[in-house]
Design goal:
The chain has eleven helices and twelve strands. Strands 1-9-8-5-4-2-3 form a seven-stranded mixed sheet, with helices on both faces. Strands 10-11-12 form a three-stranded antiparallel sheet. Strands 6-7 form a two-stranded antiparallel ribbon. Helix 4 links the parallel strand 2 and strand 3. The structure holds pyridoxal-5'-phosphate.
């Protein structure tokens, strides 16, 4: 049987049917319907944030977040190349320039010690990514942002449910984006949200996802259509009911990998810091001077019908569409992208299969 790097979490079929049944009575399929409203309220509670605005997907949410600040065209946003391409595409699609900053060895998040030297008169924001659910150096980034009056946006696509110093991760920075894509820890089929403390952002963000139209029907901002529909919201409501169970099952899988692969020469596994909780979203392994290269491990597993993922490879500043941009100086990001492999991790992955995956890697 084929094992993929991830498998979507689904509620019971009947549970979902019960949730969507009212749609047949109300005929409201989308446009901020009752399930959507309930979902946003439940998100605020679970994520432990003041405001949550749902979107059709995480990428559109991030684009809207950046748009909402109205940065002058050509402004620079400092970000990491060690991420999914969505992060940087969201900058460029807003007619802004990405400036690539290298990452830390310890957890692969943006290195705050390298940010300051990249700041110019055009810099307007820092876009950090809580990659694999590892929390960025929020304090250091916050200090730099304050000193230079920069906006801080976090791509928290990997960090659903993560807490930092006892607070929801989405409460830090100016705005955070979560993704509810089918492949993520938590899904609403496709979906995403923005979270923020500043109540005055709410109206604007809700309007941007609806063409930029206000209550009177007047368009005051060039928005697109990024609304979440009722069927997505229903899936979100169902999955949110089971999220603790999904994460707990992931923890068991994660710990099993750790017990087999930790302290093996040539294998590096990033350990959680002590001030944040984990959602066990990914199990990235760095193969560095191991008896097999990353690509060899990938092939060994693939021969047994097990599909790990070279995530993130290549790094963004080495991708075709980005060759015309200044790729900066990011040797660590480039190195890790060539040595990292994310092993299969999802809530109902059998421990027997985990043992087999480890056996193949270690044999
Ligand atoms: C998944 C992901 C996104 C995009 O989210 P979608 O919901 O798929 O649009 C953005 N950034 C990162 C780091 C992601 O992993």
């Amino acid at each position: 049987m084929r094992i993929n790097v991830t498998k979507s979490s689904l509620p019971d079929f009947k549970e979902y049917c019960d949730e969507i049944r009212p749609i047949w009575e109300s005929f409201q399929l989308t446009n901020n319907g009752p399930i959507h409203k309930r979902f946003e309220a439940e998100l605020e509670k679970y994520l432990d944030v003041k405001n949550a605005v749902a979107f059709v997907n995480g990428h559109s949410a991030l684009e809207a977040a950046i748009q909402s600040f109205h940065f002058p065209e050509g402004s620079e946003i400092i970000t990491t190349p060690f991420t999914f391409v969505s992060t940087v595409n969201a900058i460029v699609r807003n007619h802004l320039t990405p400036v690539f900053c290298d990452i830390k060895d310890s957890d692969f998040t943006i290195d705050p010690e390298k940010i300051e030297s990249l700041i110019t008169s055009k810099t307007v924001a820092i876009l950090g990514v809580h990659v694999y659910g590892n929390v960025c150096d929020i304090n250091a980034i916050g200090k730099i942002a304050k000193k230079y009056s920069l906006v801080v946006i976090y791509d928290a696509a990997h960090a659903f449910g993560v807490k930092y110093k006892g607070k929801g991760i989405g409460a830090y920075g100016d705005i955070s984006m979560f993704s509810f894509h089918a492949t993520k820890v938590f899904n609403s089929i496709e979906g995403g949200c923005l979270t923020f403390n500043n109540d005055t952002y709410k109206r604007k963000l809700k309007d941007i996802k609806n063409f930029g139209i206000d209550e009177t029907g007047n368009c005051y901002e060039i928005g697109g259509n990024a609304k979440m529909n009722e069927f997505q919201a229903a899936m979100g409501v169902c999955n949110l009911r089971h999220i603790s169970e999904y994460i707990e099952k992931r923890r068991v899988v994660f710990e099993r990998y750790l017990s087999k692969l930790d302290n093996v020469k040539g294998i590096y596994i990033c350990k959680k810091d002590i001030v944040s909780t984990s959602n066990y979203s990914y199990f990235p392994v760095i193969f560095n001077n191991y008896k097999y290269s990353r690509d060899e491990v990938y092939k060994k597993l693939a021969m047994k019908n097990i599909f790990a993922r070279e995530y993130f490879f290549p790094v963004i500043n080495e991708m075709k569409a980005y060759l015309e941009y200044d790729c900066g100086n990011t040797p660590k990001a480039s190195f890790y992208s060539k040595h990292v492999l994310c092993l299969p991790l999802y809530s109902d992955l059998n421990l027997k299969d985990v043992d087999e995956i480890c056996r193949i890697i270690l044999e």
